[in-house]
Amino acid sequence: MIFGIDTLGGAKYPDVVRKIAGPDVAIGGFDNTFGPFLPVAEKALAKGSPVVRIQMLWSDSHQFGVSDIPKISKIARQYEQLARKHIGQRLELSPFCEHNLNDPDRYLDIVQGEAPSCYAVNTPWKGAFSTRYKNEIHGTKKPPKGEYNFSYDGLDCFNSDAQSFKDMHERAKVFFWWFSQCNGRMTSADNTPRPQRKAWPDVKLCQSALYMNDDRGPAKLPRNWLWKSHAEQKKPEGDPRANKPVLITPLKVDRFQLVNSSGKVVLTLPYYGSFVDGRHRYYSSKYGMELGPNLALRAKGKDWGVVNAGFRFGGFRD
What we know:
Elements: E1 2-6, H1 14-20, E2 26-30, H2 38-46, E3 51-57, H3 69-83, E4 90-99, H4 104-114, E5 119-124, E6 134-138, E7 148-151, H5 162-168, E8 174-177, H6 203-210, E9 226-228, E10 246-249, E11 255-259, E12 265-274, E13 280-283, H7 288-291, E14 295-299, E15 302-307
Parallel strand pairs: 1-2, 1-8, 2-3, 3-4, 4-5, 5-6, 6-7, 7-8
Antiparallel strand pairs: 9-10, 10-13, 11-12, 11-14, 12-13, 14-15
Helix pairs in contact: 1-2, 3-4
């Protein structure tokens, strides 16, 4: 399995994509939904990314058809020129992102014919799976038969049981992490129109997703406790608590300590205030990936649980 990030809006943050791309990182993107992605794809391949997957067309209605053939043909020819420069790496072309078509192979044949150095990929919504091309599924869909890609696209990986998703999709050829900022949204509830979005990810946020490539390790919390590896982002920029861990618990104390297996205090989480449901919050000043796995939550001289700071645990929204 190759892990990567579905930087769908990457045309808006090309330098970030370039910095995270590399021999162990697949990159995904929309061809032109957020601006031209072809230059970004070229930089990712130049950095050695083994797979770059392009979603060629998007429609909010998920409706595509014959009228789209000229567009996908033109786009495929453009990426064919890029693929010829990077033989040995996979440039995958999905003509429609989340379609409702009954006959996807008709369009996949066109893409493959126009771009023989690329690899056509089928990405259905309520549409049909292909029996001749690799399929790609998103969100909570179950693994299909045969070769496939998985992307969190539309489902924020930071709010999920990431370890269970990895276990479920152990057969996936490419496993794409996706989170709201990939598309410029602060959270999954952020309905800012695409042209006005500003909550694009930085390198650290992308790295915090790739941190979850590794096994989570032990995790245990009392009932009604929650470790959020990424606190919600409340504004596009300048939010010091955004995307850093927060502990939410019924227990009110001055602080919690994160203690590693050697007994060293890695970080202290001071009390911040009450949560909306009456529980209490303790925020980290560092990203979860900077703190690591197998950390005891210590307060009042007692260890209350164990977490991997880069993984959500104790309750999952998605």
